[in-house]
């Protein structure tokens, strides 16, 4: 029975190893087809999202297989091996008890056998010397000599000794025989049945334990059925979530260029240049004067060039044009793609700017703590880092403003194109620089090197972009002075709308920072513009009229 139990334990071990290998292979498969991706590589199509959802569910399913293997290892295989050791120890104990009982019975038999042999030996010795006949003869004859009396006495003593030894052997033999019979009865009626009963109970417990482990083996599978069912339901839901129209819309949104379709090609009447001849008839009935009036003598377009343009443009079904070099303003991309890339870059720059602002605030707070508690650190040691952070913020703001200018340019073109379409839906634009598939004109350098006119920063207002300035400063009434400031650092003021200042220069404050990091100031010469708030030490005059505080 113990051998069968160990055989079943070996079966469970091999089964759980199969489960472990299966789960491991499933996880490897999921990892192979679902690698780590960056944020830009996150799938957007419903078919891809559903596939990754199925992979996640499959990964959870693999986890359930691992759980089955763990349950079998602990609750079945582990229990069986432990119980097998206990059974072996218990069986050894019972067999030792049986051997002890048998040894005790053998000892009793040996004692009885010895007493039997002793009794037999004493009786045989008594028969070898006819003491009784000798004693009777001497008793009948009356000898007169003294030696005969001594012989008689010795013979009597010897006879009595032999008789006494035989009686004692007999008594001992009877006692040992009685004891052996009693122990033999106990051995076969009490000790051996008790040992066999214990062995039987042990084997019955082994059988019950096998039944329990069979049930535990099945329960390990049954426990994971609800979660496995949820995994399968998740896979089914992912399959139902595939939306072909949504995927198509994503493709269109991702690759639409924003170009207008090319305009219609005009009819070119090459027969206008033919002169009328009387012999072969007239090819054209149009008078020569009218032909000249219509521009027949003007420059003729190159038919070869015009006929080849559509072929070069429609590269989706033909030959793909050479890839244009990437430019900083993304002008090599179609308008819609350019707008998306510019907006994405602006969002990234805003995030970087926010990090720099948070770092600046943290450094300023640390500097205040150092100033209040000099033993914690030197405040001046933080100044280089603060200056570096401020410079980074200025660079990021400049980049944001530059990209916003480009974005405004793209959106302006698109809005004007939309207005053109709404004004005349049937009018087609002439052969221009834009095509549906993303190529511009034959001379791409014309647009790539078009000078960019950076508009003056618009005036910042509440909840607006933090880096826009006023488009103009020529208000009829100058703004009142609400305070003054001292420049902590020099500022170039390269962008239009900003005001250059030298270190330690004193300026008048005419408009507070509205939360965008810029303060409007005026020089003593009357020149106005925006300066970085972090570059100046501001003192406001609360009693001044016209002072406005934005919260």
TrEMBL record:
Organism classification: Eukaryota, Metazoa, Chordata, Craniata, Vertebrata
Example GO biological process: signal transduction
Pfam families, per the entry: FCH, HR1_TOCA, SH3_1
Protein name: Formin binding protein 1-like
UniProt biased composition (Acidic residues): 468-478
Organism: Tetraodon nigroviridis
Family: Belongs to the FNBP1 family.
Domain REM-1: 332-409
Biased composition (Polar residues): 270-287
The entry's keywords: Cell membrane, Coiled coil, Cytoplasm, Cytoskeleton, Endocytosis, Lipid-binding, Membrane, SH3 domain
Cell compartment(s), UniProt: Cell membrane; Cytoplasm, Cell cortex; Cytoplasm, Cytoskeleton
Record field: compositional bias (Basic and acidic residues): 288-305, 406-427
Sequence ranges assigned to domain SH3 in this UniProt record: 480-541
SMART domains named among the record's database cross-references: SH3
Region of interest called Disordered, as start-end residue ranges on this chain: 262-311, 406-478
GO MF annotation: an example: lipid binding
């Amino acid at each position: 029975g113990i051998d069968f139990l160990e055989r079943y334990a070996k079966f469970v071990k091999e089964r759980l190893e199969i489960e472990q290998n299966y789960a491991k292979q499933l996880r490897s498969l999921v990892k192979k087809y679902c690698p780590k991706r960056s944020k830009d590589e996150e799938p957007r199509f419903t078919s891809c999202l559903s596939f990754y959802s199925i992979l996640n569910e499959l990964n959870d399913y693999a986890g359930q297989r691992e759980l089955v293997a763990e349950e079998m290892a602990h609750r079945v295989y582990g229990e069986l091996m432990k119980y097998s050791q206990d059974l072996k120890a218990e069986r050894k104990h019972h067999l030792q008890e049986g051997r002890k009982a048998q040894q005790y019975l053998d000892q009793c038999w040996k004692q009885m056998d010895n007493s039997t042999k002793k009794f037999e030996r004493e009786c045989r010795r008594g028969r070898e010397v006819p003491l009784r006949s000798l004693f009777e003869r001497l008793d009948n004859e009356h000898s007169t000599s003294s030696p005969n009396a001594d012989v008689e006495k010795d013979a009597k003593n010897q006879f009595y000794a032999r008789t006494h030894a035989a009686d004692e052997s007999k008594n001992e033999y009877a006692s040992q025989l009685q004891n052996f019979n009693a122990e033999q009865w106990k051995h076969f009626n009490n000790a051996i049945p008790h040992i066999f009963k214990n062995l039987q109970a042990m084997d019955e417990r082994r059988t019950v334990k096998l039944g329990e482990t069979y049930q535990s083996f099945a329960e390990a599978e049954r426990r994971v059925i609800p979660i496995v069912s949820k995994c399968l339901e998740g896979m089914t839901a992912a399959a139902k979530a595939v939306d072909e129209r949504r995927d198509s819309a994503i493709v269109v949104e991702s690759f639409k260029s924003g170009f207008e379709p090319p305009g219609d090609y005009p009819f070119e009447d090459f027969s206008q240049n033919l002169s009328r001849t009387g012999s072969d008839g007239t090819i054209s009935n149009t008078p020569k004067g009218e032909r000249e009036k219509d521009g027949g003598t003007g420059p003729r377009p190159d038919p070869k060039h015009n006929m080849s343009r559509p072929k070069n443009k429609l590269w989706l079904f033909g030959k793909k044009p050479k890839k244009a070099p990437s430019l900083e303003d993304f002008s090599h991309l179609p308008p819609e793609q350019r707008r998306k890339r510019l907006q994405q870059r602006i969002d990234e720059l805003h995030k970087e700017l926010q990090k720099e602002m948070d770092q600046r605030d943290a450094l300023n707070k640390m500097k205040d703590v150092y100033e209040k508690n000099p033993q914690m650190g030197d405040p001046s040691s933080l100044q280089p880092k603060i200056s570096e952070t401020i410079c980074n913020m200025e660079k990021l703001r400049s980049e944001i403003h530059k990209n916003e200018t480009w974005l405004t340019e793209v959106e302006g073109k698109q809005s004007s194109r939309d207005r053109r379409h709404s004004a005349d839906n049937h009018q087609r634009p002439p052969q221009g620089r834009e095509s549906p598939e993303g190529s511009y004109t034959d001379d791409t350098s014309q647009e790539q090197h078009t000078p960019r006119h950076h508009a003056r920063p618009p005036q910042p207002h509440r909840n607006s972009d933090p880096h826009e300035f006023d488009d103009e400063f020529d208000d009829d009434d100058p703004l009142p002075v609400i305070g003054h400031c001292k420049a902590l650092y020099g500022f170039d003021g390269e962008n239009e709308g900003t005001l250059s200042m030298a270190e330690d220069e004193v300026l008048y404050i005419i408009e507070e920072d509205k939360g965008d990091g810029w303060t409007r100031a005026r020089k003593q010469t009357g020149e106005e513009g925006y300066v970085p708030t972090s570059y100046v030490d501001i003192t406001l005059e609360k009693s001044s009229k016209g002072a406005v505080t934005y919260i």
